[in-house]
Design brief:
Shape: elongated
Subcellular location: Cytoplasm
CATH architecture of the largest domain: 3-Layer(aba) Sandwich
Mean pLDDT: 86
Oligomer: single chain
Helix content: 25-40%
Number of strands: 34
Strand order of the largest sheet: 2-3-1-4-5-6
Distance between the termini: 71 Å
Number of domains: 6
Structural class: alpha+beta
CATH class of the largest domain: Alpha Beta
Organism: Rubrobacter xylanophilus
GO molecular function: GTP binding; GTPase activity; RNA binding; translation elongation factor activity
Radius of gyration: 37 Å
InterPro entries: Beta-barrel_SelB, EF-Tu_GTPase, P-loop_NTPase, SelB_WHD4, Small_GTP-bd, T_Tr_GTP-bd_dom, Transl_B-barrel_sf, Transl_elong_EF1A/Init_IF2_C
Protein name: Selenocysteine-specific translation factor
Low-confidence stretches: 32-47, 67-71
Number of helices: 18
């Protein structure tokens, strides 16, 4: 297959009319303004894309995002998945509002590597260029970003070589992206090409996509990849970090568009998640319960922020919060998002997803701190306790934000966690459950020596574990400390039936045999329970009990009468048994319960199975 090519996606950023598109055209030869309106107005409205060949031979993707304040939402979508920034500041204008907002967005998204292009140096004198450079460096220092400032002209080409050299240095240490595991591609464009069909584009966040793969959408559709292109060139594999175009079949154009996510396996969307949110220093305080616009990937939805401690979040501060979305999104732990106010529409902060499927009414700070630490030794034990004792691999993978195979390896390195079948649990949890089960079984055997078994359902409840994990525990204990039979679950060391109880049961059985067709009414006793367990006695109805062999003879009598006469009435059975209506009625109802007969009016007939 060869070595995976180095992929670098660079997002341009900066104030409107600072020359981003002109500079990209100078660097790549590509005009990224695709819309007629963009050419007419002279500004970018939607993100544009171009390939950049760097001096060292590496190829990078340039994303030219809009700079106008009205299109910052498109800038956020275009910045999704970028590895580094190319911040454009015009020498004749300096740092402007969208310069600051764009850099804020990039920092929120975790993009802190980049280069500053000081553009339009052909339009000002050398002194102005130097002042603009100093202002840009001061701005970067205030923002906590270290990046070179390179004077350049997109019109004359002056400084382009120096800018390319600075970008080439970035490409020497590309951002690490997971190659294996889940493939995620947020779609930023979808269109139909004549002779090809439906094409979608985006920056592949993680994993790999190959021609022939079946993908999944958040809405449950399953398109197949017929072909892959990278900047117009056919490819067999799309690698993480690369600008990717996919030719899809099995899906209609109206069923997919910008904002959709393509996945290599289905992931449930969520409308609620817990996160660490951070407010920008220039923002207003954020009130508990505030309604905002949340940007994630190439989608944006309205959301409500409920701060963990209530009250309000001060500018520059951070806090745990529960976020309720007005439309569901596909989120994984570690995903970043941007928050913008609804009015005025400005970027106010952002955050990181910690728990994409939170439990409980409020965020649990201790749990979120463990998730934020990224330490499996803290996360997994808490996750198992919160789940009620045990979790399967798939559940743990979602908590860890990993693929199941990777989760298995991670969990295996955490002390005190053991695998039980397909489940994982804390060793101490299983030991406590074992003790609870054995104590319950032994107590039950003492109190009910005639029937020392618990039903499987009762034994599961005794462990206090999820049913699947309880079954695994009982299976591991079977033959050692517990007995599992058709009658239920009992302690392996449970004492046998006391001799005096067995004798009492034998005397009772003789009484039932002597009663014949007229079963007596009995109160529940250990002796009767023992006979029922031995299947030597049956309940005929209500509190009436009969010996098993007596019941079998009565059933045969009913069958014979029905076969001879086609049916049997209460009076006919009474006469055949030479008993009273009371007992004849009880025996007929017993035959109905056994499925031997069915009542039709005042008579019974045999069911099909017994004819």
């Amino acid at each position: 297959m060869g070595e995976r090519p180095v992929t670098l996606t660079i997002g341009t950023a900066g104030h409107v009319d600072h020359g981003k598109t002109t500079l990209v055209r100078r660097l790549t030869g590509t005009d990224t303004d695709r819309l007629e309106e963009e050419h007419r107005r002279g500004i970018s409205i939607v993100p544009g894309y171009a390939e950049l060949v760097l001096p060292g031979g590496r190829r990078a993707s340039l994303v030219d995002v809009p700079g106008h304040e009205r299109f910052v939402k498109n800038m956020v979508a275009g910045s999704t998945g970028v590895d580094a920034f190319l911040l454009v500041i015009a020498a004749d204008d300096g740092v402007m509002p969208q310069t600051r907002e764009h850099l804020d967005v990039l920092r929120i998204l975790g993009v802190e590597r980049g280069v500053v292009a000081l553009t339009k140096i052909d339009a000002v004198d050398a002194e102005t260029v130097e002042l603009a450079r100093l202002e840009a460096e001061e701005f970067l220092e205030e923002s906590g970003i270290r990046a070179p400032v390179v004077p350049v002209s997109g019109v004359t080409g002056e400084g382009v070589d120096a800018l390319l050299a600075a970008l080439d240095e970035l490409a020497e240490s590309p951002a690490a992206r997971p190659v294996s595991g889940l493939a995620r591609l947020p779609v930023d464009r979808a269109f139909v090409l004549r002779g090809i069909g439906l094409v979608v584009t985006g920056t592949l966040w993680s994993g790999e996509i190959r021609a022939g793969d079946t993908l999944y959408t958040g809405s449950g559709l399953r398109p197949r990849v017929r072909g892959i292109q990278n900047h117009g060139r056919p490819a067999e594999v799309a690698y993480p970090g690369a600008r990717t175009a996919l030719d899809l079949v099995g899906i209609e154009a109206q069923e997919i568009g910008p904002g959709e996510v393509l996945l290599s396996r289905p992931i449930p969307a969520t409308g609620l998640f817990d996160a660490r949110i951070r407010l920008l220093g220039a923002s207003r305080p954020l009130q508990h319960g505030a309604r905002v616009r949340l940007h994630h990937g190439t989608r944006s939805v309205n959301a409500r922020i409920r701060l963990s401690g209530g009250g309000e979040l001060e500018p520059g501060g951070d806090a745990f919060a529960r976020v309720r979305l007005e439309e569901p999104l596909i989120l994984l732990p570690g995903d970043r998002f941007v928050l913008r106010s609804l009015a005025p529409q400005v970027t106010i902060g952002g955050g990181t997803v910690l728990d994409a499927a939170p439990a409980g009414r409020r965020p649990d700070p201790g749990w979120l701190e463990a998730l934020e630490s990224g330490d499996p030794a803290r996360i997994i034990p808490q996750a198992l306790v919160r789940a009620g004792g045990g979790m399967d691999v798939g559940e743990l993978a979602l908590v860890l934000g990993k693929e199941p195979e990777e989760a298995v390896s991670t969990v295996g390195r955490v002390p005190g966690v053991v695998r039980a079948g397909s489940m994982y649990a804390l060793r101490e949890t299983l030991e406590e459950a074992r003790e609870r089960l054995l104590e319950t079984l032994e107590r039950h055997a003492r109190e009910h020596p005639e029937s020392p078994e618990l039903s499987v359902a009762e034994a599961r409840r005794a462990t206090g574990l999820p049913a699947a994990l309880a079954d695994v525990l009982m299976e591991e204990l079977s033959g050692k400390e517990v007995r599992i039979s058709s009658q239920g679950v009992s302690a392996a060391g449970a004492a046998g039936v006391p001799p005096e109880l067995e004798a009492e049961a034998r005397w009772l059985l003789e009484d039932l045999r002597g009663a014949g067709h007229e079963p007596p009414s009995l109160e529940p006793t250990p002796a009767l329970a023992l006979l029922l367990r031995w299947k030597e006695a049956v309940r005929v109805g209500g509190s009436m009990y009969a010996a098993r062999e007596v019941a079998e003879k009565v059933i045969e009598e009913i069958k014979t009468a029905c076969r001879e006469e086609g049916e049997i009435s209460l009076a006919r059975l009474r006469d055949r048994l030479q008993t009273s209506r009371k007992y004849a009625q009880a025996w007929l109802e017993y035959a109905d319960e056994r499925g031997v007969t069915v009542r039709i009016g005042d008579v019974r007939v045999l069911t099909r199975r017994h004819r």
